[in-house]
Design brief:
globular, five-stranded parallel sheet, 27 strands, GMP Synthetase, Chain A, domain 3, alpha/beta, nine-stranded mixed sheet, Luciferase, domain 3
Length: about 525
């Protein structure tokens, strides 16, 4: 059976497709690791099978988790796909997590085998005795058994396994921006729908500049390979290196988070690179300012597509920015087959044009949070027809054309003196000042108002302005109920690994002697 025939099936698995691609594409380059050479499709299929065989040898059963925490590399790719080939659930973890969080996630997923590298091993030195999983060093370091030695012998093939479509494909842990990380279990059925997506054709070259433990990355990484394209890995994003790799490999597709677009657009030499090979750039995971979208459209060849959705799944929106330049302040319309609605505090749908919490339903939905049925229930909404939706926690409004404008995270909305204040409205005013690069507004306790807004602002390089002067300038433009109680300048805003501003950190770090007025 050919890879095309496998992809045309109602359901199959990623290893099934890759093994067919290994036969059909052979020496074609599948993965380029700038620091570790290239893997052909034949090599990738063989190493995936050897890793899967080794995992089965080590007692990893169908449906059990395999944890991976390391920088992106060819070995990381082989280990990830090997876990799936063994019938296991891949649990990619963020190296940027604290040691305690990593231990918590390892215990939560129950991994018997833990792939890591020297950097992660150093981070875990103080808690190593709390980790029972067998450690395998992807970089060949002393962090564990060297990956090349651990692999099953050449030519090894795993024992065939049967995969249920609703079985876990991967567990992705939330960034913890709202508390302790939660394990989001995404089933094979969900990934299969993404894998079959035709956005990444066989001649695509996709530059992967976000980490492989992120859902943002996987929605580009997986379809590129299953459709026979080539992925180019970056161990860590660097704007200059991104541009050089784009030019060198004639990159056609890339998924970037908004802060990466900002850093690229800020480079004085951006227009000097040949980016004419690009067909489409994608963005997701964090708010994408309209002015940056406009600049990308003007200066970067190829289309620009923004996706709005959650790792948990549910409904997603898509904005074809190059086709709708008049809608850049929105995140687009519901994707085909996706049902997106807005609900009020009582769980009732709001009328057209009104503001409500975004809930969504589609074929791409998580099974639930691993070992947390209560949290899973909290994340769900049942429609009047009895259908299951995923709650996003985002507040938005549809315009008359069905385009969704996001206001804020529901939890970030500030209620001051009985009035609802949306931080995004205030942030939009602050960044209009010529000295301001970016801003984040959070609500803090107020004796007088219950809550009141405080702004954290990063200035453009070389710009200076007194905080009080900037606050006065902003407040003159805001409504009486919106005015800032305080404004603080910061070198940069704290962000998660996919570029989301960590407002909880800003809120927690703000500690005036008494609550503000």
């Amino acid at each position: 059976m050919s890879a095309i025939e496998v992809l045309s099936r109602e359901f199959a698995t990623l290893p099934e497709v890759l093994l067919e691609q290994a036969i059909e594409l052979g020496a074609k380059t599948a993965v380029v690791d700038p620091s570790g050479g290239a893997l052909s499709y034949s090599d990738l299929g063989a190493r995936m099978s050897r890793a899967a065989s080794a995992l089965q040898r080590d007692g990893v059963g169908v449906g059990e988790a395999v944890a991976i925490c390391a920088s992106s590399s060819n070995s990381y790719v082989a280990a990830f796909f090997g876990a799936l080939g063994a019938g296991a659930v891949a649990a990619p973890l963020a190296p940027s997590s604290t040691a305690d969080s990593l231990v918590m996630m390892l215990n939560d997923c129950g991994a018997k085998v833990f792939f890591l590298d020297a950097g992660v091993a150093k981070q875990l030195e103080g808690v190593a005795d709390q980790i029972s999983a067998k450690r395998v060093a992807l970089d060949g370091s002393s962090a564990g058994v060297a990956f090349e030695e651990w692999l099953a012998p050449k030519g090894s093939k795993p024992t065939p396994v049967t995969i249920d479509p609703d079985q876990g494909f991967n567990i992705i842990y939330s960034s913890g921006t709202t508390g302790a990380p939660k394990g989001i279990v995404q089933p094979h059925r969900m990934r299969w729908g993404q894998i079959r997506h035709g956005v990444y054709p066989a001649d695509s070259v996709t530059l992967i500049s976000t980490p492989l433990y992120s859902n943002t990355t996987l929605v580009s990484f997986l379809p590129t390979l299953t459709n026979g394209g080539t992925v180019v890995l970056m161990a860590k994003f660097d704007a200059e290196q991104f541009l050089k790799l784009s030019e060198k490999h004639r990159v056609t597709h890339a998924m970037l988070v908004p802060v990466q677009y900002r850093r690229l657009m800020e480079r004085a030499d951006f227009d000097g690179y040949d980016l004419s090979s690009y067909r489409v750039k994608f963005s997701t995971s964090a708010p994408f300012p309209a002015e940056i979208k406009a600049e990308v459209l003007k200066r970067w060849p190829g289309g620009l597509v923004e996706f709005y959705g959650m790792t948990e799944g549910g409904g997603s929106c898509m904005l074809l920015a190059h086709e709708h330049p008049d809608k850049l302040t929105t995140v687009g319309r519901a994707m085909p087959g996706h049902d997106i609605r807005l609900i009020d505090e009582d769980g009732k749908e709001v009328a057209q044009g009104e503001i409500g919490e975004v809930v969504g339903r589609s074929g791409a939905m998580m099974v639930g949070y691993h070992n947390q049925p209560g949290k899973t229930s909290e994340a769900e909404w049942c429609s009047p027809e009895g259908l299951r939706f995923i709650r996003t926690g985002d507040v938005g409004r549809f315009d008359e054309d069905g385009f969704l404008t996001l206001m804020d995270r529901k939890k970030d909305m500030i209620i001051s003196g009985g009035f609802n204040i949306y931080p995004s409205d205030l942030e939009a005013e602050i960044v209009l000042h010529e000295a301001v690069l970016e801003a984040a507004v959070v609500g803090v306790l107020s004796d007088k108002w219950g809550e009141t807004p405080v702004a954290f602002v990063a200035l453009k390089p070389g710009q200076t302005i007194a905080p009080d002067a900037l606050k006065e300038w902003v407040n003159a433009k805001l409504g009486k109920t919106q005015r800032l109680a305080d404004l603080q300048l910061v070198d940069q805003l704290p962000r998660s690994h996919i570029g989301k501003v960590l407002k909880r950190e800003l809120r927690d770090a703000y500690a005036p002697a008494v609550s503000v007025g």
